[in-house]
Write a structure and sequence with these properties.
11-stranded mixed sheet, transcription, about 25% strand, single chain, 9-stranded antiparallel sheet, alpha+beta, START_lipid-bd_dom, nucleus
């Protein structure tokens, strides 16, 4: 009895000690070191830890397991508390920003009410006048209004007098602040730019003001000095900036400085001249601690020194613009950005003037670009964005900048870069320019060793054309996803040969077109996914036995941007350059590509979902019935300008041959783009709005009957429930089945390709019936899925069917798709011979 009592007390004592253990600091340090290496150690690892650490010998493995559980819980709570604190800080700052914006809007409303009352009074006075002196009344009222709002006239300042430049700087600062936080400009919020903790900010464009202007307010987690440093480095984020030279720096007494800046910008198309700016930039700290960077052009009206002449540029004017950066409580900054320019639109053809008269285009190219770049840097600095592939974010950004800069250099072809015009063949649709000293624009880091056989130079074939009723985002998206519709494999091979020791001969156009497939490998993307950097692998195949040397994979570094159809005024472009399989961070790039810029504002209303397949639009779509929404889509009136530029290397003795090839190739690409544009214009795409039409051919009816009958024979169950198999009732139910059903060829000497899919299957693969035959089975299955299918293939052929476990597959657009279960079965024809292989993917969804 005493022994049992003693054992009971011992057990209770042991139970009490198992509830709580007080760890010594040395024990905690030992456990923390293990936690750093492995937050969730296995049972074997915990036992090993006890054996290796004598200080933990008196602690049971169960207690160590509990310690790690509690440690993981504390870490999770700490991260959640940090996240909530960050969100709360963002909401507080955004609330402050919205309250200031509300105050500004109330002032603007008061001013509009006052002006409305004044104009109403003037109209009443004019109507009450009985004598015919209306013209005199209008003139007098105009003079009175001019006296109330006089045009500022600045006396000529002494160019060598810092006091005169400081006076200009202070006036610029006052005008800039009145635009950033006041009512000097009638701002209208851009469509789709809603403020919030995860939004880019508040974005507005000007209405009824001289020139074009855009304004943005946002919140970032960087300090004001860092933000100012980034924004002042305009070539790093403004893709149209060719160069920015600070020619003079004058310190001011208040701790700021005045800079005289000469900036050159690229022309967006070959149909217009480039612009340059001669400006004064003033950086100062305000009384409330905010940092202000304002800038304006120096002209004869403002005074100041004259800028450097530039014969190949049109001098544009920058009206008071800049950045107001205010420190935020708890860290970070609130940014106000104002861009206000007059781009001298009268110097270009009238059809292109919207390029220089649209505040929305300015907002996308400058204002939003600056805010997005700062936000990208902020998230990368805080570690919220991490890229794979072992590349640093700075390197990936540099790749994007180099692609854009190289494409802009090709489109503009400046003489000081070494470009010169090459004579044409009598038709001026394609312009050919050559550069015999490409080191000027490739960069000094690329010497002759970069191109081992680079004995000639670089040739660029470029063209521009106007498009009607073609959404730029949709066109670029199609060109990206369907390269085979416009590209030539031989030309791509020649372009990539410049990276090799022995380039191939000049290619000729092949009737086979583009026999290879493409695989898009994501590399990086911006925060809002408005721009993608990716590597494209072109899978090569030989045309003939003598072309075996061409049958190798090629790689392109590709930048795609502006593919969001809802982005108003956004420029859509696709730029690519051949690279090696393992390209270095400083690899030479020779970019080519497309750029589409809208000339008119977009039509209101949501854009319909459209299938990007050219063949289905031109062939299948012509016979489809048009829905009632066609009248609305026919009113979609959008003009845009398309610029195409392709660059090639050449040897001196082959220059004329390369020029002829390039000219012919660009004309071929232009023809393909025109065919694509005609196919995807809203007038034709209206037939594709809504569900896809079901194929009504006799072959489709027969195949549907075979699929249904084979499933019933092999599995003993019904794929679908039909009362009658007469007519197309069976096909309709199969077509509208909720699960993805698809068939692929059953050939032993070739890779299986898809031959049929119902509507759910087409949605899952993100393709159409016409483009379905270009998709191979092994391309959509992941490695695990291919292994499972190979292991079950013999069972399918013997038993007739097999059930496959849940897995992941990939659509034709590269998006992962998950499914709960898949069933594969043989489809037998009327002679009970094997016809194809059918798959049923249950409960699929995009990951």
């Amino acid at each position: 009895m005493a022994l049992s009592m003693h054992n009971k007390e011992g057990n209770n004592k042991q139970m009490d000690t198992s509830k709580y253990v007080r760890y010594t600091p040395e024990q905690v340090d030992a456990l923390e070191r293990v936690y750093t290496e492995c937050p969730k150690p296995s049972s074997l690892r915990r036992q090993q830890l006890i054996r290796e650490c004598p200080i933990l010998a008196n602690i049971e493995p169960k207690q160590i397991k509990v310690w790690f559980q509690n440690r993981r819980c504390r870490e999770k709570q700490r991260k959640e508390a940090s996240r909530l604190h960050t969100v709360n800080r963002k909401l507080t700052a955004m609330n402050k920003l919205l309250m200031e914006e509300n105050d500004r809007l109330q002032k603007q409303v008061s001013q509009l009410v006052y002006e409305n009352g004044y104009m109403r009074q003037q109209l009443q006075n004019a109507s009450a006048t009985t004598t015919d002196n209306s013209c005199e009344s209008v003139v007098m009222s105009g003079q009175q209004q001019q006296q109330q709002n006089p045009t500022p006239q600045h006396p000529q300042r002494d160019a060598n007098n810092p006091a005169g430049l400081l006076a200009i700087a202070e006036e610029t600062l006052a005008e800039f602040l009145s635009k950033a936080t006041g009512t000097a400009v009638d701002w209208v919020q851009m469509i789709g730019m809603k403020p919030g903790p995860d939004s880019i900010g508040i974005v507005a464009v000007s209405r009824n003001c001289s020139g074009v202007a855009a304004r943005a307010c946002g919140l970032v987690s960087l300090e004001p000095t860092k933000v100012a440093e980034i924004l002042k480095d305009r070539p790093s984020w403004f893709r149209d900036c060719r160069c920015l030279d600070v020619l003079s720096v004058i310190p001011t007494g208040n701790g700021g400085k005045i800079e005289l800046i000469y900036m050159q910008t690229y022309a967006p198309t070959t149909l217009a001249a480039a612009r340059d700016f001669w400006t004064l930039r003033y950086t100062t700290t305000l009384e409330d601690g905010s940092l202000a960077v304002c800038e304006r052009s120096l002209t004869t009206n403002t005074g100041g020194p004259a800028g450097p002449p530039a014969s190949s540029f049109v001098r544009a004017e920058m009206l008071p613009s800049g950045y107001l950066i205010r420190p935020c409580e708890g860290g970070g900054s609130i940014i106000h950005i104002v861009d206000h320019v007059d781009l001298d639109a009268w110097s270009i053809p009238e059809v292109l003037r919207p390029l220089y008269e649209s505040s929305k285009i300015l907002a996308q190219k400058m204002t939003l670009a600056a805010l997005r770049y700062i936000r990208q840097i902020s998230l990368e600095t805080s570690g919220e964005i991490q890229y794979g592939g072992g590349r640093q974010p700075t390197v990936l950004r540099t790749f994007s900048q180099r692609l854009c800069r190289g494409f802009n250099d090709a489109v503009n072809g400046f003489a000081d870069d070494g470009w010169s015009l090459l004579g044409g063949d009598g038709v001026e649709d394609v312009t050919i320019v050559i550069n015999s000293s490409p080191n000027k624009f490739l960069g000094s880091q690329y010497n002759a060793s970069v191109f081992p056989t680079f004995g000639g130079g670089v040739l660029c074939a470029k063209a521009s054309m106007l498009l009607q009723n073609v959404p730029p985002a949709l066109l670029v998206q199609f060109l990206r996803e369907h390269r085979s519709e416009w590209a030539d494999y031989g030309v791509d091979t020649y372009s990539s040969a410049c990276l090799k020791a022995s380039p191939y001969a000049i290619p000729c156009a092949r009737p086979g077109g583009f026999p290879s497939g493409q695989v898009i490998l994501p590399l990086a993307h911006t925060v809002e996914h408005e721009e993608f950097l990716e590597v494209v692998r072109l899978e090569g195949h030989a045309f003939s036995p003598e072309d075996v040397a061409l049958a190798r994979d090629m790689y392109l570094l590709q930048l795609c941007g502006g593919v969001d159809e809802k982005a108003v005024g956004a420029c859509a472009q696709l730029v690519f350059a051949p690279i090696d399989e393992s390209f270095a961070d400083d690899a030479p790039l020779l970019p080519s590509g497309f750029r589409v810029i809208p000339l008119d504002p977009k039509a209101d209303g949501p854009a319909p979902t459209r299938t990007l397949d050219l063949a289905s639009t031109l062939e299948v779509g012509a016979g489809c019935a048009r829905p009632s929404t066609e009248a609305d889509t026919n009113n979609y009136n959008l003009r845009s300008v398309l610029t195409i530029a392709f660059q090639f290397t050449f040897d001196n003795h082959l220059r004329d041959n390369v020029a002829a090839m390039a000219r012919q190739y660009v004309r071929s690409v232009v023809g393909s783009v025109q065919r694509v544009a005609m196919a995807i214009s809203p007038s034709r795409l209206s037939s594709h709005i809504g569900p896809k039409s079901l194929p009504g051919s006799p072959e489709a009816l027969t195949l549907a009957r075979w699929i249904y009958r084979s499933y019933r024979i092999h599995t003993g169950g019904d794929l679908i429930r039909v009362e009658s198999q007469a007519g197309d009732a069976l096909l309709k139910q199969l077509w509208h089945h909720s699960d993805a059903i698809m068939c692929c060829s059953l050939k032993t000497n070739a890779s299986p390709v898809f031959t049929f899919a119902n509507q759910a299957g087409l949605n899952m693969l993100e393709t159409t019936l016409v483009a379905l035959q270009d998709i191979m089975l092994d391309k959509i299955l992941d490695e695990a899925g291919r292994k499972i299918l190979c292991s079950e293939f013999s069972k399918i052929m013997q038993q007739g069917f097999a059930c496959l476990p849940a897995g992941i597959c990939v659509s034709s657009m590269g998006r992962p798709v998950s499914y709960d279960q898949a069933i594969a079965w043989k489809v037998l024809n009327d002679d009970d011979s094997n016809h194809c292989l059918a798959f049923l993917f249950m409960n699929w969804s995009f990951v």
